[in-house]
Amino acid sequence: MPRKTLPEYPNRVRFWRDQARLKQEDLGKLVGLSKVQISRIEIGQRDLNFGYARRIAAALGVTTAELLNELDNPVAADPTLHEINKNYRLATDEGRYTISVVAESSAKYQAERQIHDAISRVTLCDEELN
């Protein structure tokens, strides 16, 4: 049987387990579940309840949100954003403040740029009409 692609899985447990280079048995030992239980969670035969999600996420070094599939949490599918979130969680208070200031400045710049682009498009449309 061909291996499923990532979007076909009901969650991202297998993805993060593979990233951590853990076998199902190893992850199971870390979270108190059997290899079979981990397998069933990965393929959707067993629900990934919040209790399991918290234990599995902690063992894999990710957030519970990052265990959700791409449809339920599209942001978690981006490895760059995972790395940014991880670094933010590990940062000191001063580091988090700096990250917040940079993110806020970037958001303002993006908003101003979008407004400028929208005004430019309206101006071009007005000129074409006249």
Primary descriptors:
mainly alpha; single chain; elongated; 130 residues; 6 helices
Average per-residue pLDDT, rounded, comes to: 81
Coarse structural class: mainly alpha
Pattern of helices and strands: HHHHHH
Biggest sheet, in brief? none
* Radius of gyration using CA atoms only: 21 Å
The helix count comes to 6
Shape: elongated
Low-confidence stretches: none
- Percentage of residues in DSSP E strands: under 5%
Number of strands: 0
What oligomeric state do these chains adopt?
single chain
Roughly how much helix do the residues carry, as a percent range?
55-70%
How far is it from the N-terminal to the C-terminal residue, by CA?
Answer: 64 Å
Structure notes:
With 130 residues, the protein is mainly α. It has six helices and no strands. It has helices at 13-19, 24-31, 35-43, 50-60, 79-90, 93-129. The radius of gyration is 21 Å and the shape is elongated.
Condensed summary:
The chain has 130 residues and is mostly helical.
Task: Outline the secondary-structure elements.
Blueprint: H1 13-19, H2 24-31, H3 35-43, H4 50-60, H5 79-90, H6 93-129
Helix pairs in contact: 2-3
